[in-house]
Amino acid sequence: MTNRLSASASPYLLQHADNPVHWWEWSPEAFAEAKRTNRPVLLSIGYAACHWCHVMAHESFEDEAVAAVMNEHVVAIKVDREERPDVDQIYMSALHALGQQGGWPLTMFLTADGDPFWGGTYFPKQAAYGRPGFPDVVRTLATVYHEDPDRVTQNVAGIAEKLKPKAAPAGDFGPAQLDEVAKRVVRIYDPVDGGFHGAPKFPQTGVLEGLLRSARRTGDAGLSAPAELTLRRMTKGGIHDHVGGGFARYSTDAHWLAPHFEKMLYDNAQLLPLLASVGRETGDARLTAAAHGIVDWLAREMITQEGAFAASLDADTEGVEGRFYVWRRSELDMILGPDDAAFAAEALDISNGGNWEGLSIPNRLDERAPIDEARLAIVRARLLAERETRTRPGRDDKVLADWNGLMIASLADTAALLGRPDALALAERAFAFVTREMTKGARLGHAFRAGRLIYPGFATDYGAMALAALALAGATGDPSYRDLAARWLAAADTHHRNPHGPGFAVDADDADRLVVRPEALTDEALPSGTALILAAELKLAAFDADEVRLARLDGELAALMGLMASNVIGHGGLLNVLDGRMRLASVVVVGTGDVATALHVEALSAPAWERVVRRVGALDQLPDDHPARAGRVDGAAAFVCAGQRCSLPVTEPPALRRTIAEMTRLG
């Protein structure tokens, strides 16, 4: 027997469709039921690839006795945080307001009006780990709700006060402050394994990008060294899938060995350009190979039936975390034969005793001697073929506009550098799907699956898809992509302005109202919606040499500088936009033929955060006010422009690489 969630399109909600819990989706009807029955709302938020969400589901939501307690005392609402990031942000902030650390599953208790009054994350079925048993929590909170309404009202008021938008602090931020932030980050980075000290370790791609930007801005290689170390240690670690490519969400230990095994589209989208660019800049073939591995994994495992990109792969297989990805030493002998098995065991740290819960996570962290990379590639291919016969982890195949936008941009930005025209084709196909199935006029939706679109979209959707459009405009030379970026940024400006201060709001002005309207200012696993939109505004302004748009962007950044200064890690995306405003290069490639193509490839091979690329057949195809129009060319050439100044025409790729580096350095 199924519950109401059986009608959902979300794979996460469908995982709970057979629960004996009388689940509701987030809807006015659910809150009306809470009012009708005078019961509190139990809000449970998670996502399909979440390991501890599965643990709580198996222990409690699938249990008839626990479900009976829930059905008697609460109106239970289940939310997929990836479908409704606005709901997740509000109630995660409420949990923080209660002085608790966040995480998923998020378990919140609300009034029938949606006001939070208590919450937590994972609760065991019976008291354990210093946490009360979940049925006891439900009974206790329901009793408080009915018998001590003043206490509930007091909690509601206290949380609501902390959720109120705060005025943005005043402040100033310039090159000196950016340099000091980079130096502070270097001081707190782990000098052995990279990343921040301790466990768990997350990729923190925005911080890594910030360090790489700082090194290029100042010419101080010491600022990029921690980022390069982090990427190398991650690539060697078990967080990197050495058999199939791609990276897991984070490492549970301090050495990048043991991940929570879920693979998220957004992590890999943000890592791809870092690995590709640092691989090229440093000559590190392993980083470049890891970038190729992300593209290979994406093409093999993450393409939906419609040609877009799925959201994630589960950590668990058949209820066991990591089962799909780990190995026994005895398996190698059966698959590879004794010689190659011994080689693979040594190369990938696969042993009889294992390195994680008696099993082995392939990794190269403690490599002591050079490995025959060609032989290892053959062995890995054979292991992958064998692994493909295993029961696969679950895949959340909904299409998210913002996550797809990030991956589309990364593929378009790195295809030329990696020599992967197939990567560009993947990007174009996914982009076509989003524009065809997930738009209404100039507006974007957020999530699509099984013919259902969650609409209207969120701020991150507009920023990420505008960046995707501009990356494709640069990679293909097709100006229609530029026009879509401009259209989406205009829609974001119309519908997502933050009514409480600078920047943008998560949800649209015509979306269903929540208890507060969340601001899109702070980075999470993705840059904030404000950071993504302003990054796209900057790239569009540079693409067009649009001084009016740049002046407007300057006003936006000035109003946000105090916020950046108050929490540099939480606003790393905005700091990266500020760096880009100081030194983003616009590279214009003019002409046709082999020379123009070589210059175009070289321009696209520069770090994506350093440049925007425009290819035209002739200078008169540029906007009237573009400074490159004043140049003179005889045949193919490239111009590197920063502000209202452009380089002399460049006709050779090595010279173009040097010119981009020179014009993007401040120090």
Brief characterization of the structure:
The chain is of the alpha+beta class.
Global structural class:
alpha+beta
Strand order of the largest sheet: 2-1-3-4
Mean pLDDT: 96
For the sheet with most strands, the description reads:
4 strands, mixed
Topology:
Layout lengths: L10 H4 L13 H10 L3 E6 L4 H11 L2 H10 L1 E6 L4 H13 L8 E5 L5 E5 L13 H14 L1 H15 L11 H14 L16 H14 L6 H12 L13 E2 L7 E2 L2 E2 H18 L2 H17 L10 E2 L2 E2 L2 E2 L7 H8 L1 H11 L24 H15 L7 E2 L2 E2 H18 L2 H17 L1 E2 L2 E2 L2 E3 L2 E3 L4 H18 L2 H17 L33 H16 L2 H20 L5 H12 L1 E6 L3 H12 L5 E6 L20 E6 L2 E2 L6 H11 L4
Parallel strand pairs: 1-2, 17-18
Antiparallel strand pairs: 1-3, 3-4, 5-6, 7-8, 8-11, 9-10, 12-15, 13-14, 15-16, 17-19, 19-20
Helix pairs in contact: 4-6, 5-7, 8-9, 9-10, 9-11, 9-22, 11-12, 11-16, 13-14, 16-17, 16-18, 16-23, 17-18, 18-19, 18-20, 19-20, 20-21, 20-22, 21-22, 23-24
